[in-house]
Amino acid sequence: MTDGNSAAVIDKGGLSALIAVLAGRGRTVIGPTVRDGAIVLAELSSGADLPYGWGVELEAGVYRLRAREDGAAFAHSAGPQSWKTFLHPPRVREWSAERTADGGLVVTADASVPPSYAFLGVRPCDLRAIAIQDRVLTGGSHADPAYRGRRERAFLVAVECTEPGATCFCVSMGTGPAVGPGYDLALTEVLDGDGHRFLVRAGSEEGEAVLAELPHRPADGATHAAAHDRVAEAADRMGRSMPPVDLRTLMRETLTAERWDDVAARCLTCGNCTMVCPTCFCTSTEDVTDLTGDHAERWRHWESCFDLDFSHLPTGPVRESPRSRYRQWATHKLGTWFDQFGSSGCVGCGRCIVWCPVGIDITEEAHALDRERAARSAGGAGPP
User: Fold this and answer.
1) How far is the C-alpha of 257 from the C-alpha of 250, rounded, in Å?
2) Domains in the chain, number
3) Cis peptide leading into residue 322 (ω within 30°)
4) CA 159, CA 279: separation in Å to the nearest integer?
5) Does residue 324 share a domain with residue 229?
6) Lowest CB count within 10 Å: 140, 147, 178, 263, which one?
């Protein structure tokens, strides 16, 4: 947890005021709320929309809501969506074309004004995921202007994790449960004998300005200590972990491991893991036209490396087998992402574990690969 010099304390009324202040600044406030049997991200109109008193039970292939007795607003783990849904939407129109009366063609790039979002409840793992997508989609010579426009107008209210789920492993990936840099405001929820309150720290000039508009009081030592303890306790209660090895080396040295056959026998190649992953960014394009042929549009949409057509060439797909497609996803996420972007592509949120219909667990697979590598090394066969 960061100890900002301008830390303050707000109560539930202050949280409602935060939503009102952000909306008053022309932002669409997005945050967690209960809908359709899950905690989802949606537009918030007031603090009453937050999931007070709701938690979740998570396991591989399992997600269910559970009622809480303490009335906490943020004591739940990552849901089926990530903030990628808003910053890097599933479908974006890139251009439209009209045939003119003289037979010509006028192409118009989509120039819609990006929305101005305020994200309330960004988990530390998701805060890191946003930073990773920033590097992928705004860094280098091929920046995505659609993503950049949304990202530059986004206000981030991070919430430190005080109750990790059974599928969380952010400690292994160095992404939580305390917040890292990149937030405008950071909250830590505290419920104890002194009441229900939130420690707030500002991480930007706009964050300072927003905080100044909220009903608040200076942070006291007891709240600071309680907030610190809640986050530290969460770090000791992670439900999953990666093996304590260099994952890049592990992926590189196990490309021919037998474990890939085992996971391929279970994998449906449905692509759920890539859809819920907060950092997966691959897209494809689709051209559509009306029945007259006078109007056409190009749309960009999410794509998955589990799709057989993802690596299709004139001679056929490069990665034809489920084994090769799962291995490509895992080794890229945990290994070669470093070579491209300077960090891991995994933030330890556990979504891919929860939303896999057959319960494949990326941490279990990494441990199995590590055990197989160790066994082969002990047997004198060298790395597989």
Assistant:
1) 11
2) 2
3) no
4) 19
5) no
6) 140
